[in-house]
Amino acid sequence: MAGPGAGLLRALRGARGRGWGSAAGGWAGLRGRPDKYGGVSVELPQCQPRPRRRERAAFGRWLRASVAQWQEEGRVAVWLHVPILQSGLAAVAASQGFAFHHAESGSATLMRWLGEGPSRLPGYATHQLGVAGAVLDENAGKVLVVQDRNKTVNAWKFPGGLSNPGEDIGDTAVREVFEETGIKSEFKSILSIRQQHQHPGAFGKSDMYIICRLEPSSFNINFCQQECLRCEWMDLDELARTKHATPITSNVAKLLLYGYREGFDKIDITMREFPAVYTGRFYKLYHRELPESYRNMT
Ligand SMILES: NC(=O)C1=CN([C@@H]2O[C@H](COP(=O)(O)OP(=O)(O)OC[C@H]3O[C@@H](n4cnc5c(N)ncnc54)[C@H](O)[C@@H]3O)[C@@H](O)[C@H]2O)C=CC1
Ligand SMILES: [Mg+2]
């Protein structure tokens, strides 16, 4: 058979080459992969075109029989990974008690709890992370501030933005400051963390907003016209007093001024890096200064 339907039919006929006459149709060859929590995970094949009524009906029969089998085996949950072009199968699964757990650009993951009592399956991402940089020129006592082009109230704030997947906090601050203002800088510490729920800019999810202390290594502003209306080096003392700043910016400006005058050790949450035991990667631990005698305690 030629044409775009060939891949789908081949995939659906499965490893054993069973035809559409059998109850499960081509899905008979598809197997679930057990996970360590007692659940089972199924990847539906990537194939085109969209499933028609006959394929959806065969999938529904296969799913019903498979779920009954997994229940008999004592499995507590089913995870179903559905490629976006097969989204019609998500509707079939929904009619059998499945619900969306999360989606990436090319696929959706559905879940169904089979265990006793209410579902104990964990939710997906609950927060987005925004990071801003308070870049302080210590010689001049000036701090870098911007006004957002897309906000109705033009209050001063620190340049910043959303973290990319897999990006460290300090790297987001340095990148966003450079993209929005053209200023190069180095991460020194975390100054504050704001958590806000049901955030309109986070599609109703929670928002974590971290402000870092950065040290500049360049001083000529070349700000992004799309994102910013204005960008300036402002006296830190003035930023701490002005009414034309967002409340978080005002509070952190006061904190930064206190550290500038009395010593950054009073305000800094610094970072140390450690090897992660399980993944073989490194993680970053942020905390207030810990004296050497405590660090090396055994
Ligand atoms: N209190 C403060 O001083 C402020 C804090 N924040 C925090 O900063 C972080 C986000 O910083 P941003 O500078 O906003 O991020 P960002 O610098 O990564 O920019 C986000 C971009 O996405 C665009 N965008 C956002 N939603 C969109 C949508 N629905 N459709 C089309 N385009 C969209 C925006 O116009 C902007 O260009 C958050 O954590 C937020 O809570 C943001 C503004 C003020
Ligand atoms: Mg921004």
Automatic annotation (TrEMBL):
One of the Pfam families matching this protein, by short name: Nudix_hydro
UniProt signal peptide: none
A GO CC term assigned to this protein in UniProt: nucleus
Subcellular location: Cytoplasm; Nucleus; Mitochondrion
Enzyme nomenclature, EC number: 3.6.1.-
Entries under InterPro entries matching the protein: NUDIX_hydrolase-like_dom_sf, Nudix_hydrolase6-like, NUDIX_hydrolase_CS, NUDIX_hydrolase_dom, Pre-Nudix
TM segment ranges: none
Highest taxon in the source lineage: Eukaryota
Gene3D superfamilies referenced in this protein's UniProt entry, alphabetically: 3.40.630.30, 4.10.80.100, Nucleoside Triphosphate Pyrophosphohydrolase
Family: Belongs to the Nudix hydrolase family.
Alphabetized PANTHER family for the sequence: NUCLEOSIDE DIPHOSPHATE-LINKED MOIETY X MOTIF 6, NUDIX HYDROLASE RELATED
Primary role: May contribute to the regulation of cell proliferation.
Subunit: Monomer and homodimer.
Name of the protein described by the UniProt record: Nucleoside diphosphate-linked moiety X motif 6
Taxonomic placement: Eukaryota, Metazoa, Chordata, Craniata, Vertebrata
